[in-house]
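[stage:ingest] chain + small molecule (magnesium ion)
[stage:ingest] validated
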Amino acid sequence: MVQTRLLDASDAALDAAAAMLRAGQLVAMPTETVYGLAGDATDDHAVAAIYAAKGRPSFNPLIAHVVDLDMARSLVEMPGPAGDLAAAFWPGPLTLVLPLKPGARVSALVTAGLPTLAIRIPAHPLARGLIARVGRPLAAPSANPSGRISPTEAQHVVDGLGGRIAAVLDGGPCRVGVESTIVAVDAAGAARLLRPGGIPAAQIAACLGQDSLTQTEADGSGIESPGQMLSHYAPRGTLRLNASAPRPGETYLGFGPDSGRTSEETGLNLSPAGDLTEAAANLFRLMHVLDDRGADSIAVAPIPETGLGQAINDRLRRAAAPRD
Ligand code: TXA
Ligand code: MG
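[stage:predict] done
[stage:export] tokens:
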């Protein structure tokens, strides 16, 4: 057990957090998507400690967070379409999986030995301030124990990882609320969607001048992006999806105006106005609330499969998947 320090958003706190990271310790940092558990991506020991703190299977590679394009280019090749996507969406909730540059200074534990690296420039000023101070890429998976709900508030991190990490930087609630969209671009410039997320796939396709984007589905054997694994992001209770109304004993998670089904008393509505951006921002917070209330049977209203609805439904399907 270590004492986990809760740090505010001041310059002094950022300096302290950067010093911890440079010393190989782990710090949870806010990003615009979810809180990330950051460690120095060039330090094998720090990266190994991330896997250990999360209890994450070591075959599951991590995203390297960088502060600008120069830092990105020092690590990965940027085939034409990758440059276009970076120009359009960075800083922001897009992760690119790109060919690793020979000799790139990054721990092989970050890529889990793959010839590619997942990389992104986050938009959150605290994340950016931290990476700039450390001056090295930061490996950062979502700051939750493996298989559990992603954290969108500092308190979620303290609840899940307190006692196992050096500090949590408190930046308030995350604006986007679901993880970044992951797109792989190969050396020939072909793009594939590996995970729906904070930027709708349709916007990625439009930027590439395509009608749509191929999505690589996990088939259980050759998992390419293990965030694709089923039973991820799960609350403790069971989930029933596309439920137009709750059954007896179920707690209802609503979406849109639902004339009392969500029960105004419980306030468990992703977005009473039916707004997908608001629903994404509320998704993990409300799953944490369901856990805190000990809800064991949860019914979830239908969510449209458009825009951010794709990422929301993806997380809900994984949360509802059978667990072992
Ligand atoms: O919004 C986000 O992306 C957050 C914040 C903290 O940046 N991070 C996040 O990290 O969601 P994590 O570790 O929970 O998810 C990273 C995903 C995993 O599904 C992993 O398998 C995939 O990225 N990934 C990482 N490197 C990869 C690679 N080289 N090829 C394919 N998938 C990769
Ligand atoms: Mg995660």
